[in-house]
Write a structure and sequence with these properties.
Elements lengths: L12 H4 L4 H12 L4 H4 L4 E6 L11 H14 L3 E6 L13 H17 L4 E6 L4 H12 L3 E5 L6 E3 L2 E3 L3 H11 L5 H10 L12 H12 L15 H19 L3 H4 L2 H14 L4 H12 L6 H10 L14 H6 L2 H8 L16 H5 L24 E5 L2 E7 L10 E9 L2 H8 L11 E4 L20 H5 L6 E4 L11 E2 L20 E5 L4 E5 L2 H10 L10 H9 L25
Parallel strand pairs: 1-2, 1-3, 3-4, 9-10, 10-11, 11-12
Antiparallel strand pairs: 5-6, 7-8, 9-13, 13-14
Helix pairs in contact: 4-10, 5-6, 6-13, 7-8, 9-12, 9-13, 12-14
Bound molecules: FE2/S2 (inorganic) cluster.
The site of FE2/S2 (inorganic) cluster (FES) has 10 residues, from loops.
Length: 575
């Protein structure tokens, strides 16, 4: 066991423990807040980064949960300080929360650096908040524990279970095809999100919370607890108690986030049938930890690990059911032969210790390795002349006939052009066509919006077509499904080959061979490239301009070039 810190070795000691004019100022201001020496003297100061806001209903409960974390911190002899951080409410933030993930990461890092903080509890859950908070915490390097917001309760409509996102897409298509009424559509609107908490399908939120746990950054089992379950505040108080000890033990993210920890996370991602978005975030987190993870590793692991969690959109159930089936500890126990059980976690114990004794209570929800939900990997990474630096798809959520397909492209330059075209009854389209949508990437979107599930043309929907091949440089919501090829890199906005696709070109996809090919000759492609003009920058000033100048492509994790590298930053001067 490593040596425990002394109180005078705490980072906060420089603010609060010395006897000079500056520390007089700090302590007098704490007294202004009604605190006194027994509140802070010799105690770890715990920063609770809270992404609660009035417009993030996935995080409504985090206001109260911060109090539960404080309760735990106080019980363990720490001094809790709550620091608000940007909330990144997925449904409301435009043009895309992805535009702001790195801003949250910067905010998290600098909130911790600039204040007298010794350890951090990170409260998040809604999609980008998990990677944003963890990326910032990794770069800051203080002991940190992640507290996932947890999924909301199942949706309900006329006794039918509704899943976030997935059932919105499904019933929107039913409405477009004239199979449900306006009144029914409005009833669904009132029943699809029934409680606070994150989306309760295996979307990006559930995927990233599970990945955080699999990496060792949460308490065991934390990611599966529904937001409204009484176990959730109990978990928050435990996290508050634990972070105080983590400070004394100097248990930093760098000690936890090894290459093996990331491999564990990717294995769990595959077994969960997780969101394709996670690839970008996991690459970004690994690079913050100084590791050179790339998309190929996802493909390698995807070939080994089948989908075990029978959760929508790849399966039938929801995260609430997954919790009752045993939750992530049970799923990781099923995967134990494939995991590195020796990896250290925030508990100070190993992954193996944390999952010991976990049981699956419902076999239809968490399957064993020898009888998986799907042998098709959750994620395939393809490459070829249309995506020289790669692209991704989720074979487990696609119509199997489209996993090997060749068809003619219908290409759209932007969202509005596509939205108008798919509603036209005279659109010349068959189920074998390939829909191509450009300018949805990190810079072109901007912020790589979740436009990758291009709508099936209404004409085909009415004829009963449920899936067709779709290609873009955008992302896709983890709640979506279909044969959608995403994250094409480099993006079309910067002159990636996707920019040169024209309607009528033939595109071939072979998922088993991990290949994507545009059947246009080299000479013709060179002619189109020479005639192509880069679109004008989206942002003349402000954060958007900074973002556009420094953002990496999808295969690099979309981090800023000035944030990704490792390198010590001097502690702030206290004077
Ligand atoms: Fe917050 Fe889906 S909208 S997790």
């Amino acid at each position: 066991m490593s040596k425990r810190k002394r109180p005078d070795e705490l980072r906060s000691h420089r603010w609060l423990g010395v006897n000079d004019l500056r520390s007089f100022g700090h302590r007098s201001r704490l007294r202004q807040g009604g605190y006194d020496a027994p509140d802070w003297a010799g105690k770890p100061v715990i920063g609770i980064l809270n992404t609660w806001s009035d417009i993030n209903f996935c995080h409504t409960h985090l206001r109260a949960r911060a109090e539960d974390v404080k309760r735990g911190v106080l019980q363990a002899g720490g001094f809790p300080i709550e620091l608000p951080a940007m909330s990144l409410s997925e449904p409301f933030v435009k043009p895309s929360t992805m535009l702001y993930r790195n801003l949250l990461a910067m905010e998290a890092e600098e909130l911790l650096r600039s204040h007298p903080i010794d350890g951090a509890v990170l409260l998040g859950g809604c999609d980008k908040t998990t990677p944003g908070l963890i990326m910032g915490a990794i770069s800051m390097g203080l002991p940190a524990i992640y507290v996932p917001a947890g999924p909301m309760l199942r949706g309900n409509w006329h006794g039918e279970v509704l899943g976030s996102g997935s059932d919105a897409w499904k019933y929107w298509d039913e409405k477009r095809a004239g199979r449900i009424s306006e009144e029914q559509w409005q009833e669904i609107e009132g029943g699809i999100a029934r409680s606070y908490g994150t989306c309760m399908v295996m979307g990006t939120a559930a995927t990233m919370m599970a990945i955080a746990e699999a990496m060792g950054m949460t308490l065991p089992g934390a990611s599966s607890i529904p937001a409204a379950d009484a176990g959730h505040p109990r978990m928050c108080a435990s996290a508050g108690r634990r972070i105080v000890d983590m400070v004394w033990e100097d248990l930093t993210p760098q000690r936890i986030l090894t290459p093996a920890a990331f491999d564990n996370a990717i294995r769990v991602h595959m077994a969960m049938g997780g969101s394709t978005n996670a690839i970008i975030h996991v690459v970004a987190m690994a690079r913050r930890a100084g590791l050179s993870l790339d998309m190929k590793r996802f493909d390698e692991i995807s070939r080994e690990i089948p989908v075990l969690a029978n959760v929508r959109p790849s399966g039938e159930f929801l995260m609430e059911d997954f919790f009752y089936a045993g939750g992530l500890r049970a799923l990781m126990h099923e995967l134990r032969e494939t995991l590195d059980l020796g990896c250290l976690t925030v508990t100070g114990q190993s992954v193996g210790d944390n999952i010991k004794g976990a049981e699956v209570y419902k076999r239809d929800i968490i399957h064993p390795l020898d009888d998986p939900v799907s042998r098709e990997g959750a994620t395939a990474v393809l490459a070829g002349n249309l995506a020289p630096r790669g692209c991704v798809m989720k074979p487990s959520a696609a119509d199997k006939r489209l996993l090997k397909h060749r068809g003619k492209a219908i290409a759209f330059e932007d969202y509005n052009e596509m939205a108008r075209a798919v509603e036209r009854d005279d659109l010349s389209v068959t189920p074998d066509h390939v829909l191509v949508r450009k300018n949805g990437g990190p810079i072109g979107g901007p912020g790589m919006p979740e436009w990758g599930q291009l709508p099936i043309p209404t004409k085909l929907l009415k004829a009963g077509v449920k899936d067709m091949l779709r290609i873009s440089d955008a992302r896709m919501s983890g709640t979506s499904y279909g044969a959608c090829i995403l994250h094409v890199a480099p993006e079309s906005f910067v002159g990636g080959p996707l920019a040169f696709v024209q309607t009528g070109d033939e595109i071939e996809v072979d998922v088993a061979a991990r290949r994507i090919h545009l059947h246009v000759g080299e000479e013709e492609l060179a002619r189109r490239r020479a005639a192509w003009q880069r679109p004008a920058p989206r942002y003349p000033r402000g954060y958007g301009a900074l973002y556009s100048q420094h953002i990496g492509q999808a295969d690099e994790g979309c981090d800023f070039d000035f944030l990704a590298p490792l390198g010590a930053i001097a502690e702030p001067e206290i004077h």
